[in-house]
Specification:
Helix 9 (249-279) packs antiparallel against helix 15, helix 10 packs antiparallel against helix 11 and helix 11 packs antiparallel against helix 12. The protein has helices at 10-43, 58-87, 90-105, 116-139, 141-144, 150-177, 184-207, 227-244, 249-279, 284-312, 314-334, 340-366, 374-403, 406-412, 414-425, 429-435; strands spanning 49-51, 54-56, 439-442, 445-448. Helix content is 76%, strand content 3%. The longest helix is centred in the first third of the chain and has 34 residues, at 10-43.
């Protein structure tokens, strides 16, 4: 049974939000900036390495690493979520994967020239730990809130994440910028260690303010506790739930709408740096500063859209953000070359809508899923999020290649925001929230009334 004292408890909500503050240091400093630079510039041999008889350069191999890690999370997230729900170990699994990922991320600082495959393996483990921890982190949201507070609390979590990631990135940037040139490489590795310790230290602080929700279900008759038993239950329960999702058209419609508009969002995030350096011909330092501006503005943007959702509802607030994303695409298309201030304005615009879109999508989904299976359902949410990261970059690449213009490719992303807007408009939120009461879970089975 749900511990009612956790719901809308300030201490618990603060602890929950602080984990976003903790793990954003890794995604902002290590994953987005420093590790790709060190991997391509120092760890990889000049000219690349041979993989299956073909020469692969550092940039390509790193992109394959990201895709492989996303695939692992794609497969494991719903199953691990189902096990966490069944065994009432959401917080325990969150601790396990967060601590493991944070500690292992420190080892990136030790990777030197030639440690290619060691870095690849380490990256796959750390990224998978981060992704699965995020599933269990999200799954606690419905247990901590009510329908009246879930949007505001989700927005607070994202706001803390953007602020924490931005502060840690600023510290790392200052360390690197003001270090002697002879110490620059070592400073980057020290910054990676700082990001890992930030993740670990604030995670410990956060988890002390949380409690495990729910109680474990009994194992099937004759089954013994163990890895294989729980793995079988996880796979069976996930398959059982998938087979019954078709009976919940409003929830599925939201997931498809989310897949589409999140595809546009993820593409803007992933191509921004390359667009700025290759098309707009801006310096790396300018891009780094713009990236910091995104983090800072996104803090306020997440809180602002949480407030807007309280006035007009989360669905309408997301739709407002999608209109603004369309404007961001048009603004990106029209930016002049070698002009930093307009690009900084674009970065601020992205930050304004980024936090709101992500936070409200998470909370709106959380209000439509059964609490007793929240980790499993957020595993599905993670799957749709990972799947969304495929098609936008693919469309961007195709349009760029066919037209020879990344500006035209930027405009093509409007299709994702428009289609997502249209499908979201047809989602009946009240019916979706009522339908979650029809789910009943026992053991490996999911029953629908």
């Amino acid at each position: 049974m749900q511990d009612a004292s956790m719901r809308n408890d300030r201490r618990s909500i603060f602890g929950w939000a602080m984990y976003d503050w903790a793990n954003s240091a890794y995604t902002t400093t290590t994953l987005a900036v420093l590790l790709p630079a060190i991997f391509t510039g120092e760890i990889m041999p000049e000219g690349g390495i041979t993989v299956l008889g073909r020469m692969v350069d550092g940039e390509s191999l790193f992109s394959y690493m990201v895709s492989a890690a996303a695939l692992l999370a794609f497969v494991l997230s719903p199953v691990m979520g189902a096990v966490g729900d069944f065994a009432a170990r959401k917080l325990r699994f969150l601790r396990t994967f967060a601590y493991t990922g944070a500690v292992l991320s420190l080892l990136f600082a030790l990777m030197g020239p030639g440690d290619v495959w060691l870095t690849v393996i380490l990256f796959l483990v750390v990224e998978t730990c981060w992704a699965i921890a995020a599933v269990f982190y999200d799954s606690l949201l419905p247990h901590l809130t009510t329908n009246e507070t879930i949007d505001r609390v989700s927005s607070r979590g994202y706001a803390f994440g953007y602020l924490g990631g931005g502060v840690q990135f600023l510290i790392s940037l200052l360390l690197i910028q003001f270090s002697p040139e002879s110490f620059a490489a070592a400073a980057a590795r020290i910054a990676i260690v700082m990001a890992g310790l930030w993740w670990l230290g604030f995670a410990i602080f956060a988890f002390r303010r949380l409690r495990e929700p729910g109680v474990a279900e009994p194992l099937p008759a004759g089954a013994r506790p163990g890895f294989l038993t729980y793995a079988r239950i996880g796979f069976a329960r996930t398959a059982n739930t998938i087979a019954r999702l078709r009976k919940f058209p409003q929830l599925l419609l939201f997931l498809v709408a989310f897949l589409l508009y999140n595809d546009g969002v993820q593409t803007v995030i992933s191509i921004s740096a390359a667009f700025a350096t290759e098309t707009l011909r801006l310096d790396t330092a300018d891009v780094a500063l713009a990236f910091l501006v995104v983090q800072i503005v996104a803090f306020g943007g997440a809180l602002l859209f949480g407030w807007i959702a309280g006035k007009i509802g989360p669905k309408r607030a997301i739709m407002v953000s999608l209109v603004l994303w369309t404007g961001v695409s048009i603004l990106g298309y029209s930016l002049p070359e070698e002009s930093f201030l307009p690009f900084l304005g674009l970065a601020a615009s992205v930050g304004l809508v980024l936090g709101g879109t992500q936070a409200l999508s998470r909370s709106l989904y959380g209000s439509m899923i059964p609490e007793q299976a929240s980790a499993e359902f957020y595993g599905f949410y993670s799957v749709f999020s990972k799947f969304a990261a495929i098609w936008g970059p693919l469309l961007f690449g195709i349009v760029n290649q066919v037209t020879g213009s990344s500006r035209q490719a930027i405009l093509s992303l409007i299709a994702f925001f428009t289609l997502g807007f249209i499908l979201l408009a047809f989602v009946d939120i009240d019916r979706a929230r009522q339908a979650k009461e029809l789910w009943h879970f026992q053991g490996a089975a999911a029953r629908v009334d």
